[in-house]
Amino acid sequence: MARPFHLGWFLQGSSLQAWGEPWTGHIGRTWMAPELFIDMARCLERAGFDYLLIEDSSYVGESFGGSTELYLKRGIAVPRQDPSVMASLIGQATSCIGIVPTFGTYAGPPYLLARLVATLDQISGGRIGWNAVTGSSNFAAMNFGLPGMREHDLRYDMADDYMEVCRRLWASWEPDAIIADPRTGVLVDHTKVHAVNFEGRYFKTRGPLNSGPCPQGQPVIAQAGGSPRGRQFASRYADTIVAHTKGIAAMKAYRDDVRARMVAHGRDPDTCKVLFLVAPIIGETEADARDKKCQRAARAAATVPERLAHCSRSSRRSTS
Ligand SMILES: Cc1cc2nc3c(=O)[nH]c(=O)nc-3n(C[C@H](O)[C@H](O)[C@H](O)COP(=O)(O)O)c2cc1C
Q1: Domain limits of the chain?
Q2: Which of 11, 30, 46, 184 is most buried (CB neighbours < 10 A)?
Q3: Cα of 224 to ligand 1 centre, how many Å?
Q4: Domain 8-311 has CATH 1.10.1040.10
Q5: How do residues 50-101 score in pLDDT, each as one tens digit?
Q6: Residue 97 in 3-state DSSP?
């Protein structure tokens, strides 16, 4: 049934993001266990959400004050577990919600990523999306042995290549390649599994993928590019976009821009759902909600260093 509107939940990492908030219980002690996130996914599924996007990053910040101290003391995006593990557990515990872990296009060969996403798609019964990010932190790049992040637009050029590889690998198996006929003893129809032999500007692969066809054919691609180059990438590949745009006029302009870019790529703009990030404050009554808003503002005012540390997290230069 077509839905009048779509809802996604932006989960800030399978980590301690909300440490200290009442709704996260004793997560400071129980953070290794997946129960909170599984419980959350079940609630979101029950509430009719289309998908749960699991944010990720792969470094410990140290920009603020040139030290990891505040990041570790306050648990700013650390500890943070690998989203693919949480995605597979959530897949087992739910039955229809979409699960969208985040993976970067700057570290590691696309073959590994295509295989991981294909496997997740298979074990979740075709409910996996990939939030494709190009990365932004030099610390993260250095964790993968790179000297630093490449320049912004070049990261998207490389991501184009990366995505092409992944798409071709997912397409390397025709949907009906697995026959599993006990009479003939043939499991796979070899004429329906194809070499890829992709040689792009930045990546190459032989293929085919060895993990079999994806239930969705091509898993869902999510993207959140805000810059013109990011929107260009998103409009080329994304099935859903989450944008951090404030105000109705700006949201409309963003959506119009993405849709026009999709048309220029020869895509039907209705095939991509554009969602906008909002942080509603919910109370039993309006007064209750306003009260919560004041409490939130007071908490924000009391944690300015933490907020600065969070904003400057991906920068290599220190902020004091
Ligand atoms: C809702 C949302 C979720 C995002 N999730 C991640 C994430 O998990 N990891 C990451 O490295 N970047 C994440 N980003 C950053 C985007 O991928 C993108 O880099 C950012 O919006 C800036 O756009 P640009 O890359 O076009 O400059 C997210 C952005 C938004 C708005």
Answers
A1: 8-311
A2: 11
A3: 5
A4: no
A5: 999 999 999 999 999 999 999 999 888 899 899 999 999 999 999 999 999 9
A6: coil
